[in-house]
Amino acid sequence: MLGTAEAELHKEPGMPIVDLMRLTRFATVAWLAALTSSASLVVIADPAAAETAIRFTLDRRVDGPAAPFFLAIDAGYFKAEGLDVTIEAATGGSPEAIKRLATGGADMGVADINLLIRYRDGNGAPVKAVFIVFDKPCSAIIGRKSHGIAAPKDLEGKKLGAPAAEEAFAQWPIFAKLNGIDAGKVMVENIGLPVSEPMLAAGEVDAITGCSFTSYVDLKDRGVPPDDLAMLPFADYGLALYGDAIMVAPSFAAERPDAVQGFLRAYVKALKETLRDPARAIDAMLRRADGARKEVELERLRLAIHDNIVTAAVKAAGFGGIDSERFAEAIDQIALAYRFRAKDKAAAVFDPAFLPAATERKVRETASR
Known about the structure:
With 369 residues, this protein is of the alpha/beta class. It folds into 2 domains: 51-136 and 242-354, Periplasmic binding protein-like II (D-Maltodextrin-Binding Protein, domain 2, 3-Layer(aba) Sandwich); 139-236, D-Maltodextrin-Binding Protein, domain 2. The protein is built from 14 helices and 10 strands. It has helices at 25-35, 67-74, 77-80, 93-103, 113-121, 167-178, 193-201, 212-221, 250-255, 257-276, 278-286, 294-309, 312-317, 324-334; strands spanning 52-57, 83-88, 108-112, 128-132, 139-144, 159-161, 187-189, 207-211, 229-233, 244-248. The chain is globular. The two termini are 33 Å apart. The model is unreliable at 1-48 (pLDDT under 50).
């Protein structure tokens, strides 16, 4: 928590009682002069007063892939940077997280960068993305092989459950165009996010749009045989998009750039520690998620590390940054399903100025257990 500056200042009327017999004449005169000088007053501040409070929002419930943020708290990495970080979940996904950042409800957060691109283009507040968390988005089609789903074209003539609030649904038209799917032949049913996985498990739809590591683990937990799940990650079928990114509210970025930089340094330390020991990171997460099961969230975290976080591109270039050519291609792909007002300004959504040094962001170890 933020500390309060304290000062040991005594403003007693008259002469304070001292043992003048213990002072030389010269020392006594110097002491009296110092007592009357305002410049001699020393305020001793509580070190905690230097801490900066950061309200951080997730873009989903507390789950395995969010573990590095909580590990950074428990391991003292944020505190070492002079930060007091509190974390809040978001049941409304990335739209809720971005709205919090745009309206003052959070200082920093994590959300889908593709949604932020569209939000800013639509005259939204200039929220900045400052660190890529998912080099590949978790957006995917999750289908049932027993319903004839094995490849993108198999969706024609099938029923697709598509929660409108889920980031993957916004990317579905791009996926369809890049993979030659006649979208008019797909029966898209707009369903609520909480019921999408139960409906797929019950066979009420043939496939859903969703997040790969979330749906795969949850559907297995609901009793769907893993070998009946057809996972079609958008990143494996032509989409150049990035995924979740750490973002910062405009006012906070302007007023406390040092705090943003400190947050990212602490996060990178926690991320590297998560790769070395995922189980420790999950323990930090579990302390904030009542009812969560370690084996389930550990599997979810390991899937995210393998498929979305530690990619070939990240191994080559390090965590957090973007490739400008790939980002330009991603923006072109977004334009396949979204009409920009100012497409030429879209790349400004990512600000690399806050990134830790490239040497700090290098991948040195992958998850070992």
